[in-house]
Design goal:
Elements (H helix, E strand, L loop, with lengths): L1 E6 L5 E6 L7 H7 L18 E6 L9 H7 L9 E3 L13 E4 L6
Parallel strand pairs: 1-5
Antiparallel strand pairs: 1-2, 3-4, 3-5
Family: Belongs to the adrenodoxin/putidaredoxin family.
Protein name: 2Fe-2S iron-sulfur cluster-binding protein
Cofactor: [2Fe-2S] cluster
């Protein structure tokens, strides 16, 4: 199992346990775990509504793609630790990481 922590917009934290080899993105796991995350473009790195801040574990993640960097550049609150959840695959690199949800909410 892969364990990582998600902090919602109110500061509440929950540890998620995801089976290895599940072949999903972090965005898909967050939506399946009923987090209020828009993910308008469905995971194509075109909208940035699945913006997360990586509080711990940033160095273990694969590098950002050009498409992800371009989208993050459009966000006024993006920082060095910002990622798009749709561009992060759930694998052992997420073990022990902490993600804070930053993207827009459903109305």
């Amino acid at each position: 199992m892969i364990q990582f922590t998600v902090e919602d917009r109110t500061g509440d934290r929950q540890t998620l346990e995801i089976p290895e080899g599940i072949n999903l993105s972090l965005m898909e796991v967050l939506k399946a775990s009923e987090y209020n995350i828009l993910a308008t473009c469905g995971g194509m790195a075109l909208c940035a509504t699945c913006h997360v801040q990586v509080l711990e574990g940033l160095d273990a993640l694969p590098p950002q793609t050009d498409a992800e960097l371009d989208m993050l550049d459009t966000l006024p609150d993006a920082g060095f630790d910002s990622r798009l959840a749709c561009q992060i695959r759930v694998d052992e690199s997420l073990e022990g990481a902490i993600f804070r949800i930053r993207g827009e909410e459903h109305e």
